[in-house]
Structure formats: structure tokens, C-alpha cells
Amino acid sequence: MGKLNVTILRYLTREDFRVLTAVEMGMKNHELVPGALAAAIANLKAGGVHKLLRELCKHKLLTYERGKKYDGYRLTNMGYDYLALKSLSLRGSVASFGNQIGIGKESNIYIVADEEENPLCLKLHRLGRTCFRNIKSKRDYHGKRHKASWLYLSRISATREFAYMTALHDRGFPVPKPIDFNRHCVIMELVNGYPLTQVSEVDDPEALYDELMDLIVRLGNSGVIHGDFNEFNLMITEEGKPILIDFPQMMSTSHPNAEYFFDRDVNCVRELCRRKFGYESSTYPTFKDLVREDDLDAEVHCTGYAFTKEMEKDLLQEYGMVDPDSESDSENDAHKEPDVRQDTKEDLIQYRQQMESEMKFAEEKAKTAKEKSDYSIRKY
Ligand code: ADP
Ligand code: MG
Asked: Is 246 among the residues known to form the active site?
């Protein structure tokens, strides 16, 4: 685990950012983005896109690959990271980057700091990779391979996490304070504590058990289930207070498989308290005890962080949130692999519009961000 190498952010010019964004837009419909399409989307006044594309390849933000039908550019993990980090630093949410502090199942976690040098936590969502570990487990489970693109999945994962974290934090749930997000990156409060995996002793296991069960019930009464309520996703602060993290797989209590996942969360807590602290109790919450008091599940859809029902379905599938007893036709539901069809004029107009709005968004945010010219990182 090392540092995020962000020196390149300083050298990324406005034109580089534009060309990189153009390839990102092109990848919505293409595995590989032909140079001519990238040039058409980027629409640089001075031209010279091909030279910039080559430079971006040299810095490993893009790759140039030979496809079966045609050759083209592909955005790399690093390229996607830079687009997000550049946007976040332009608007002043992040001013400096520090060490990696964790590797989760579906993410990399870093310490970063804002302009006042307050430490924050940066989570880079990494889903749908052709990572052997992931594919193997998912093949075993569905007997099929998922095809949704990593750009698409990582982005909704981060969006969903930010939306849930915001709704939970607003209601006073013990979760990190959400700060900002862009693409597949989420910035949140850095929790001052340790994940429960690293805690071998607590003063009062019974109190912790009750507190965790109470949290599961309060979530349930608000209309949601965490879905991965385990010792990796619970942190204990210096004061011994549990903080819940990791939200992209959260689901509604109205979901057809809700009871299964509610019980699984409850059993997780029973099992971890028994194994770690030798504590067992005969009382534990059940799904039918829940009383609807809030509609947090519906509200996250109204936050303006756009994700559709279809996106949600794709994501929950990626997280394995499907009841093993229910037969799901995952093949039909899976997001389509970007195809290689010819672009129409309308496609091109749409790509350009998307890119212009991305650029405008980044620039406007940057303008409203506090002016501090000593951060070279924020200069184009
Ligand atoms: P994943 O979805 O990959 O499991 P998590 O959100 O669970 O990612 O984070 C992985 C690990 O990173 C956690 O187990 C924890 O150790 C650390 N971590 C995550 N968020 C924070 C945070 N806000 N503050 C401090 N540490 C964190
Ligand atoms: Mg986790």
C-alpha cells in the first residue's frame, strides 16, 4: 500500500482534461474509442487532439489497443482516478493526498486533506474489474459472468454510497460525515478509530451487542437494511462508540429479499459477539418486529444524485444481493456491454453535451471554491 501518485494532476492541462473526458464519454457506447471520435467529442479549437491522446497514453491515463474490428483508446483505472481527483481538487474538496490506509473488498481507501489541512477519507470504488478473485466468486454464485462495465458500476456504487451516507448522517445515524463525491470517488470524514476486526476486547460486550442490534432495528424502522453488517464495516472510536461504514449495497426493507438480508445482518452481529467476545444472548430482533417510521429508502431516490432503478438492480447484483433461493434471470438484466455500433449525429451531439456539462460543472465548482492560489494542484 502506498501513496496515490498525483503529481500528474499538476501537469494536466485544461485540454488534457477535455480529451480525457471525451474518451470517457465515448466509452459509454464503445469498448475502444477511435481517435476520430475522441477528437470529434473533445472539439478542441486549436486541434492537436491526436498528440494529446499519445501524451495521455505515455502517462498511462489511456491505452491504445487493437480491437477485432478497429483500434482505439481506452480509459485506464488511473485515467478515471485522475478525472475524479482533478474535479474534486478543482472544487477545493481535496487539496492534498496522503497514504493508502485500506483495501476493502470493492475499494481502495486513502487519507487526503482539505484546504484547511483537515484529514479526510477518500474511497475509490473499484467494481466489475477483471479481477480473478471477483469473477471466480461471482461465477460460482450465478454460474454466469457479469458484463457490466467497471466505469458504470464503480460510478453508481459511489453515487449510491454518497446518497445513503447523506440520508443516514442527516438523521443522526452513527456514520462518517459525507463531504463530496465525483465519479467513483467519495470523500468523507475520517473515522478516528479501528475496524472491529482489529478490536479483540471491549469493556462491555453486552452493551455493544445491544447497541448494534438497536442500530439494525433503527435502520429497519427507517426503511433500510445495511446488507453487509460485519466487523469490517463497523469501526470503534476511541470512546468505544460504533460507527457504521460501507453503504453501496444498502437496500430497502420493501425489497423482495429484505427479510433474508435483515436476518443475515442480525446473525452477523450474534456470530461476531459470540466468536470475538464470548457473548451470547437469546434475544435478537426479527424482521416482523420492524415498524415503519421513516422512508429513507424512498428519499435517497429524491436527492438529485441520479441513479435509476435499473442501475440499482445492476449494482445490487454485482454485490451479490440476490436471495440464493430466488431464481434471478441475471443474464437478461445485466447491463449491456458497450457495443461497437456506428455513432449517429445525435450520439455525437449527446456526447458533446455531456462533456460540456462536465466541464462547466467542474469550472463552476472551481470558481465558487475558495481562492487559494498557492495550491498548484488546483491550477490548470
Ligand atoms: P469496501 O466496500 O471495499 O469494503 P469499506 O468502506 O468497508 O470498503 O472500507 C474498507 C476499510 O477502509 C474499512 O474496513 C476501514 O478499515 C477503512 N475505512 C473506510 N472508511 C473509513 C473512514 N471513513 N475512516 C477511517 N477508515 C475507513
Ligand atoms: Mg467494507
From this structure: no
